[in-house]
Amino acid sequence: MTSTEVAVTISVDGNDVAVPEGSTILDACTAAGVETPTICYGPNLTPVNACRVCVVELEGSRTLVPSCSRPVEEGMVVSTDSDRVNHSRKMVLEFLGSGVDLSEADELNEWSAKYGAQPDRYENPERMNEEIKIQDDLYVRDYDKCVLCYKCVSACGDDAQHTYAISMSGRGFGARIATEFDVTLPDSACVYCGNCVAVCPTNALQFKTEFDLRQVANWRPEDQTVTTTVCSYCGVGCNLELHTQDERIVKVTSPDDHSVTWGNLCIKGRFGWQYVHGDTDG
Amino acid sequence: MADLHFTDAIANDGERNAIDLALGENSALTIEGERIVRGGASRRRGLRHLLLPALHALQKESGWISPGGLNYLSEVLQVPPAESYGVASFYEMFRVDTEPGHDDDVVHVCIDPACRIDGADDLIASLEAEGKHVHRSPCLGQCERPPAVFIQGRKRPDVVPADDDAFVLPQAGDDSLRLLQRIGVVDPTSLDSYREHGGYEALTKALELGADGVLAAISDSGLSGRGGAAFPTGIKWTAVRDADGDQKHIVANCDESEPGTFKDRMVMEHDPFALIEAMTIAAVTTGATNGWIYIRGEYPQATGRLENAIMASRDAGLLGEDVAGSGKEFHLEVRRGAGAYICGEETALFNSLEGFRGEPRNKPPFPTTNGLFDQPTVINNPETLLNVLPIVLDGAAAYRSIGTERSPGTRLFCVSGRVGAPGLYEHAFGATLGEIIEAAGGASGEVQAVLLGGAAGSFVTSDSMDLPLTLEATREAGTTLGSGVVMVFNTDDDMADICQRIAEFFKNESCGQCVPCRVGAIRQHEMIVAIGHKPMPDEKRVLHEDMVQVMADASICGLGHTAASAIKSALALGLIGANQ
Fold it and tell me: Regarding beta strands A77-79 and A7-12, do their DSSP bridges make them parallel or antiparallel, or are they unpaired?
């Protein structure tokens, strides 16, 4: 905190913590060293508070409140480890596990284990039941893995790219992320910046390179190295993180806290690296 | 705003004309030769709130939301087509699929409890046998005359066939009524008739009292919201009056969709000027200049009568630039919903009206500071607004002379199901459940259960006949008045079937935004279908209680908070799942 910022003090699990005015309860929890599960939250995205896994108990509030979006107010008393909080977190994770393929959602699975989610308590639950969409060589959309967190919609829209190629469509359990009339990505407004892929928490959106390696059981994050460099295409100076496996680039990201990109890239930086390998077939 | 991208699909002439007509002066796209001559993209920004009217026009013209038509309205309104599609696919009345059958009218038949126990299935079977295109609809707000039908016209106006029948208000002509006194007496199409029956006297009085006087009267009266949440109206109005903002809004939440509820329709159809007068009082009191009546799409008669009443009031100088010579400005218009229960949630309603998906917003901030278009907004149920007229005219003390200390005044009850005379009734707060059922002709057969407050309410049994239907007594008894629903079931009714339908209702009507409600509602439905008429095993009871708790604790809005409450009560009372 700089000296010009106004501090707001709230109590988190009995400990006072001071954070700048305009911070969220989640910021205060982090400042207090309390780990909070999140799914739909992204550091550079406007909170949509849809997943409800970050809920906390706020004294005076009838319902639990989403910590990711609730601004702090002086004197708030917050509990993050109460029975009600733990119950809701467990149930949210359990609900998601009962209908969505979370096999590649590593962080989410860690929380599910921590909170004791039991997705197998449900008899014949209806699931997402979506076919994988492979419509180009750049990324795939596997909505069987989608938790409808809105992050890709936000990244495609107001929070990063302003392309608006996708939206939430339908209603209830039938809600899906879609282009208009579900037209293919090449027919849609998509510009292949891949910023949606970058924010997806469950691997529903993934690089085609990653997808292909997973298909042959050769996706090995533990054997990958990440090299930070600067994109060579134009003068903006975006940081690139090149994820390499067996000396080939398999994925490109950008740091969320980089002051130029804030995690975002364009099609060239994200997908235009084949020349590095000197191959003609990409 | 984005540089919009469109697919190759082109609207036909009929679609373009229909959309242009719906948008009126805002249909900014005129092409001469190959050149757009009027209204560039910049001029068309800020028109997104016309998305729903444009979609209605396209649906009526083509029988579905065609890709070409969607492209056209998206370009005119400068809305990304993916987002227009996201909005269109949200609503029951818009078809975005291309399956056959969209050339005809769509006959919506209600399958919710009151119609379900009174012939809905047989009616659907016979309509389908005639080759009609039937849509199984959630509650259509005609529970007093089951089974309910609404016909969504293709290239012709929507109609409710039952509107042609003589309407019945059981208490018509009873002078002691406060809210329903004009219904069945006044000509709802005539401003003169309204004035002959005391109409617009309250506005005159309100202008004499001034904002402080009106706010004091409303606060002192103890009036609270009649939509279900019972928030004190005086606090709401005062907050909006005190809020900073160049522009403020009055919104009448006429998206009445709670199963079992039809009170607002009756009021809007048979006393439309009263709603307009009350909204005008709210406007001059709070400083709002814009008013919106957001009415559910399945109420064509109410929509027509409100539009007529607005025009008549405007022509008489009671709306517009100078309301009744007061120098105050108030513009009012009607917007139709398109079939979505969730849009009765106030912040979902704002999103819907603004042309976004009807997903609730997180609160705080509250509508009093960040409402419609993010501006200070009073949003009230029509019944709440109706109460303003006697409060302003007669004062708070007179208003409180009936009812109880904590629930002053009267309440509208929508009595349906197994009673002798289903219909809309006005009773002083404090009347017991048994008295209300007696006044509606008494129960037919032996009462098995009564659904109080709608699908979002809870069941009680004949043990509760002495329960006074006040806010405080129902709360203490662990139930709710909700929107005033009293739906009676007798021992011939299959409660397992009724509960399955209630669970299905929430599964279908959850907007899908938050996990507790989106998944909780479908898991509850699966569980109740699996139980059927069988006993509920203990581990399933525990699971249901776990679901109830997360939905109540962690859902974004009231729909999720209450989506399990009726089922919970049915289980607790042994109406379903009981050990035999």
Answer: parallel
